[in-house]
Amino acid sequence: MRPMNDVLIVLALALVAAAATAAVLARDPVRQSTVLALLGLALALLFAILQAPDVALSQLAVGSVLTPLMLLLSVRKVRRKGRADGRADDREQETGSAGEGERR
Amino acid sequence: MSRRIRTWVLLLGGLGVAVLLFAASLDLPEFGGDRHPYGARAVEAALARHTANVVAAVNFDQRAFDTLGEESILFCAALGTVVLLRQTRDEHRVRPEPARVDPPVRRYALVALPVTLLIGLYVVAHGQLSPGGGFQGGVVVATALHLLYIAVDYRALERIRPVGLYATADAAGEAAYLLLGAAGLVAGTAYLANFLPYGTFGTLASGGVVPLLNASVGVEVASGVVVLLASFLDQAVEIEDATEHTASGPARHPTLPPPSEEKPT
Amino acid sequence: MSVLPYLVAGWIFLIGCYGLATSRNLIHAVGCLAVCQASTYVLLLAVGYRDGGTAPVFSDLRPGARPVVDPVVQALTLTDVVVGATVTALLLALVVQVGKRHGTVNPDELSELRG
What we know:
The complex is a heterotrimer of chains A (104), B (265) and C (115). Chain A has one domain (2-103). The longest helix of chain A has 32 residues, at 53-84. Chain A is an all-alpha fold and 104 residues long. Chain A is 88% helix and 0% strand. Mean pLDDT of chain A is 81; it is low at 86-104. Chain B has one domain (38-88, 96-240). Chain B is built from eleven helices and two strands, in the order H-H-H-H-E-H-H-H-H-H-H-E-H. Chain C contains four helices and no strands. Chain C has one domain (4-114): Helix Hairpins. With 115 residues, chain C is mainly alpha-helical. In chain C, helix 1 (4-22) runs antiparallel to helix 2 and helix 2 (26-48) packs antiparallel against helix 3 (71-102). Classes of the chains: A mainly alpha (104), B mainly alpha (265), C mainly alpha (115). At the B-C interface, helix 1, helix 2, helix 3, helix 4 and helix 6 of B face helix 1, helix 2 and helix 3 of C. Chain C: It is a multi-pass membrane protein. Chain C: Its main location: membrane. Chain C: It is found in: Cell membrane. Chain C: InterPro entries: CPA3_antiporter_subunitC, NUOK/Mnh_C1-like.
């Protein structure tokens, strides 16, 4: 029981560290918000294993839904504004973000 | 400062912090250790006050004053966001077109909405008994409402989400917390003290003021998050400024997929 | 094993700071700040963990039957998670305003505009 639990904790920690690294290295905010949602899930898993169901619940709701959603909405607003100023390169990214939104 | 120098400064600082963190982690209490003096006392106090979920007891009884601070941060952050993202004079609203939603998506979202809402309310109501409480349940309730955006469209969401009402509820939640604290003074004890009878252990009415404070936090978090998401959604979906409309308004529609596919959830 | 969780918390904090400092997009920077916040949750809960402990909820547990993990750090983390999200919202609102005023959210371009 005890070593089994230790293995689970180490695995969850590794997952969290990897997800955090990936979230920072994803330079496109749209992709980053997806990775942040994954990080939220990994954190919720770790907290559940660390016997903190209250925190896991709150992390699940906030980290994997609320924060990525607000990031995506800000990206959309800022890019729309950028496009209105005649930045043609953003149009391509905008459709990318729409596709991302669809998938989520 | 050039970018090269900046990177070096960052690297040096990061290395210093890493060394300090490593040294500190060697001196922290051992992971998984058996000595938790604060935890043991918190458990004792929570059981003495008939609150089954010790985390809720810590939040709303033993450290209720700290939670007041946290809640005020939440309130101020929501207020600041609303002020920053309000519609300014040079912007105007574009009514979003009614969107077509695939029937399976609509069915699923319409089934999921009441279930999620119910789960959220359950999590808020049973905060003092089982894992959950006003903070977590409030977020679940608020995000559940937004399933209507996925199921139908933005107009439908706006109909069940009069922002003014939720903003008032947000303030009412904060006020209820403050007044419940003051009620402790009236009852002859201290501010935010647990002055109500503790009730029977393990029932909904146990824990004295814990369920009441929990509920007021639930109301505040739920309406606060609704208001926050409303300001962001308004900015992303409805509000456009004058240049935006003339520059890209008419030409925009052919280049973009229909609104139903643009939803960011 | 005994310091690994603390080291992971430190790593998350450092990588978040790295992203924050090298970010080319303020929205991405706010996301990196959320990563930094996550490190504090990991650290706090790691301090409160106890081997063989269970969650500090006594609705179906006889008091004293099993050791429980530290509820105080859990309470701290719990409020921090939700409040942190609203602070993230405030920062994002600032970024949206910056985008509206200047037409860019790249910190380098922004400082050029000022100078």
